[in-house]
Amino acid sequence: MKVSTWNVNGVRAREAQVFEWLRREKPDVFCLQEIKASPHQVPVSLQEPEGYWAHWHGEGGYSGVALLISKTLCPVRPAISHPPFDMECRGSVVALGDLELATLYIPNGGKDFDAKVRFLESLIHFAKDRHAAGKRLMLCGDFNVAHTERDVHEKLRDPQLTGQTSGERALIDRLFSQGLTDLGRHFAPDDGELFTWWAPWRQYRERNIGWRLDLVLTSEGVTKQARSCTAVREFGTSDHGPVTAVFEGPLFDPEKVQEGSAPAPKKSNEPQLDLFK
């Protein structure tokens, strides 16, 4: 089973690149963040790509997440929900038997730091509650926190910057303490150049001067089946690179997946955009 996660920084701008990733990597689950589109604004070609169940969760040109789930992996449309702490369309969870897989876009915190703290604290409680209910978790997405100094290039380290403060890092520590493993570090514990976000100036991406913000977190049983977790710097024009985790063997029984309903069309006062201009 292969799971990719990518902050696309606008799905309308990255339509062809999402298709290219699906064609090239063939992920069983593709988690997207910062889609910057309501469901009716998503390019028609991506609303439900061939071979995938799709769920788009967004409101206009800001934030938003999506889940694309292979029909080969999951023969029926799985149930997808939004956690109770969801705000600004930042979280979707797909139920795959006793495995719950989430795409998450944690607030940056630059404009509303308290909202970021509340979101992370709620996510900690969510992980605790779902584990207590006997569920296994995979949390994928842009966490907007560089967990340790090693997750920021030495030229960019500043403990006063949002995303690097001790308080934010302590919240990530608390999240990990809920029985979750950061697969990126699990497979590359000493890699000081494992970054997933680069500021779009001074050739930072080309020089790999960045931050590691995009993570795949897994419960113990899921971690045992993980075989790799890699980040790709060279793909796409988003300021983030895709991260992909590969697992050996099935992570859930397809026969235990409860069928969900197709998402209802969301009414909007915004005009339908001409996506081909």
CA-CA gap between termini: 37 Å
CATH topology: Deoxyribonuclease I, Chain A
| CATH top level label | Alpha Beta
Strand ordering within the main sheet: 3-4-2-1-12-11
Any idea how many domains?
1
Any idea what the radius of gyration is? Answer: 18 Å
Shape: globular
Write the layout of secondary structure elements.
Blueprint: E1 2-7, H1 15-25, E2 29-33, H2 44-47, E3 52-57, E4 65-70, E5 80-81, E6 91-96, E7 99-105, H3 113-132, E8 136-142, H4 166-176, E9 180-182, H5 183-187, H6 204-207, E10 214-219, H7 220-223, E11 226-231, E12 243-247
Parallel strand pairs: 1-2, 7-8
Antiparallel strand pairs: 1-12, 2-4, 3-4, 5-6, 6-7, 8-10, 9-10, 11-12
Helix pairs in contact: 3-4
Task: Tell me what you see in this structure.
The chain contains 7 helices and 12 strands. By secondary structure, the protein is α+β, with helices and mostly antiparallel strands. The protein has a single domain (2-255), classed as Deoxyribonuclease I, Chain A, CATH 3.60.10.10. A 6-stranded mixed sheet has the order 3-4-2-1-12-11. The protein has a 6-stranded mixed sheet with strand order 5-6-7-8-10-9. A hairpin with a 2-residue loop joins strand 6 (91-96) and strand 7 (99-105). It is globular. The termini are far apart. Mean pLDDT is 94; it is low at 266-277.
